[in-house]
Amino acid sequence: MVDLARPAPPRTGSWTNVLLLGGGLALAALVLRAIDPGRIAGLQNFFIIFGSLLIEAVPFIVMGAVVSAGIEVFVPARAFDRMAALPKPLQLPVAGIAGFAFPVCECGSVPVARRLAAKGLSPAAAVTFMLSAPILNPIVIASTYVAYRGRDTLWPMVLGRSFLGLMAAMAVGWVVAGRSSSEILRPRPDEEHHHESGPRWSSFAGHLAGDFLFMGRYLVIGAAAAALLQTFVPQSIIGSVADTPVLALVAMMGLAFVLSLCSESDAFVAASFVQFGVGAQLAFLVFGPMVDTKLGILYSATFSKGFFRMVVLVVGTVTLMGTLWIEVLVG
Question: Which of 72, 163, 81, 169 is nearest to 124 (CA)?
């Protein structure tokens, strides 16, 4: 006779994760003992950058997971049917401006966009929201204002960032238009054939934990890659091109990609690069929240092959063209 009250055996996957973590810590300890003491400073810098990126981004992963789980459990599908019923010319602008209502950083906007697409919103609108939210949300607008207050470039930076961010997000949405959710999203085994039963708050907690763990593991990989780049790429390479037209814009876009800063704090970093012009600083603030090292990992894990490359090309082109015009008009 089978004892139904007997607890199920533990999952082997959890023990595997524990063993991998323990082995990784042991390996790190051996490396630290064998490393040349002269290189300790560089290693310390790596861990400082890695830890700061995690501390900066994890709260927004949590925020995005909360919003994502709330959409899945508490928002009825018919709400997105109404959004999809909007005239096609309005869908992308409305999705982009909707980012103002969600104070979600770039890391948190990825699971939200996935959930929106899975709930029936068009992938084009979901992607437009995902890219615009980290720039148009009120916290980012306020931080940009504070970072540049007292400067002649205050309003070009605040308004230029919001406008170019919206244009770049809509451009990517336009490229994605016509594709279905199954074509643009990578399959998630935990989402297939999953029907909720029981209390809503229990379902909410399950989705919250699943989204956080799914995005968190890729955030760790992206943060480690960003820390490696920051530690070993000399900053003098970037400073030497500050006075070169066009190249300065590309350099600041590349720096934004490498630094992988949170959009709610990157304006203070951009404002510190006083040797660069308005256009270059704006390129840093528009390109970074849409394309950086950790987002490359998140996009690759969430969307189909080629999506990240397409975002880099479209956002890079719109950012470069827009900041060149602003450099001419304002600079």
Answer: 169
According to DSSP, the residues that pair with 185 across neighbouring strands are 303
One DSSP character per residue, 134-194 reads: HHHSHHHHHHHHHHHTTSTTHHHHHHHHHHHHHHHHHHHHHHHTT--HHHHBPP-GGGTT-
Q: Coil, helix or strand for 303?
A: strand
pTM over 0.85: no
* Amino acid in position 296: G
How far does CA 89 lie from the centroid of its chain? Answer: 26
9 DSSP 8-state letter: P
Q: Tokens standing for 293?
A: 């090292």
Digit-coded pLDDT (tens) for 41-86: 667 788 888 887 788 777 877 877 787 777 777 876 666 666 667 7
**pLDDT tens-digit readout, 126-173:** 999 999 988 998 888 988 998 899 899 899 999 999 999 999 999 999
Q: Taking the CB of residue 71, how many other CB atoms lie within 10 A of it?
A: 19
Structural domain boundaries in the chain: 41-330
Amino acid at 105: C
Q: In angstroms, rounded to a whole number, what is the distance separating the alpha carbons of residues 112 and 283?
A: 25
**DSSP 8-state secondary structure symbol assigned to residue 8:** P
Confirm if 109 and 64 have CB atoms less than 8 A apart: yes
Q: 257 with 287: CB under 8 angstroms?
A: yes
Q: Report d(CA 286, CA 159) in Å as an integer.
A: 11
Residue that the structure tokens 């959004």 belong to: 83
25's tokens = 């810590």
